[in-house]
Amino acid sequence: MSLLDRLNQDMKQAMKDKNKQKLSVIRMVKASLQNESIKLGHDLNEEEELTVLAREMKQRKDSLQEFEKAGRNDLADPLKEEIAIITDYMPQQLSEDEVKEIVLAAIEKVGASSKADMGKVMGVVMPQVKGKADGSLVNKLVQQNLS
């Protein structure tokens, strides 16, 4: 079942359950997917759908961080719910150990030895973990293993 089909089913269910929060989030994600499809001029493949989902998740996480920093729990709490809803549509996230294995393999593959080679390593790692691991975690692990 494609992501769009799943979103449509869940949207119908959210309407039946009168779950306004979930309905709102699903509509926003669906709109983002449709906008991206129009922008690219074709139906999205799985990887492109994943890119859109990751972008939506990152936007919410960044906002959540800012709201928590400002002490605005009234705005942070609904965002946490949105993040939980979007997480249902994301692929299973990799553990830190799994990401570390990928990073170490990439370092060995490109022959990286210093932080100057960080771009090469990130270029190899990111396509492998796209949507399955947070970029900041990957960045941190690459830096740790190159120093």
Question: What's the topology here?
Answer:
Layout: H1 3-17, H2 20-40, H3 46-69, H4 73-87, H5 96-110, H6 118-129, H7 135-146
Helix pairs in contact: 1-2, 2-3, 2-4, 3-4, 5-6, 5-7, 6-7
Please indicate the count of domains. Answer: 2
Rg for CA atoms:
18 Å
Query: Looking at the chains present, what oligomeric state does this protein adopt?
Result: single chain
Under the CATH scheme, which architecture of the largest domain would be assigned?
Orthogonal Bundle
The helix count comes to 7
Low-pLDDT segments: none
Largest sheet: none
CATH class of the largest domain: Mainly Alpha
**The CATH fourth-level homologous superfamily of the largest domain:** Uncharacterised protein YqeY/AIM41, N-terminal domain
Shape: globular
What is the N-to-C succession of helices and strands?
HHHHHHH
Q: Give the structural class.
A: mainly alpha
**Which percent bin holds the helix content?**
over 70%
Instruction: Classify the beta-strand content into a percent band.
Output: under 5%
Mean pLDDT: 86
Task: Indicate the CATH topology of the largest domain.
Answer: Hypothetical Protein Yqey, Chain: A, domain1
The CA-CA distance between the termini, in Å, is: 44 Å
Pfam family, one: YqeY
Protein name: GatB/YqeY domain-containing protein
GO molecular function, one term: carbon-nitrogen ligase activity, with glutamine as amido-N-donor
Describe this structure in words.
The protein has 147 residues and is an all-alpha fold. The chain folds into two domains: 3-87, Hypothetical Protein Yqey, Chain: A, domain1 (Orthogonal Bundle), CATH 1.10.1510.10; 96-146, Arc Repressor Mutant, subunit A (Orthogonal Bundle), CATH 1.10.10.410. The chain has helices at 3-17, 20-40, 46-69, 73-87, 96-110, 118-129, 135-146. The longest helix has 24 residues, at 46-69.
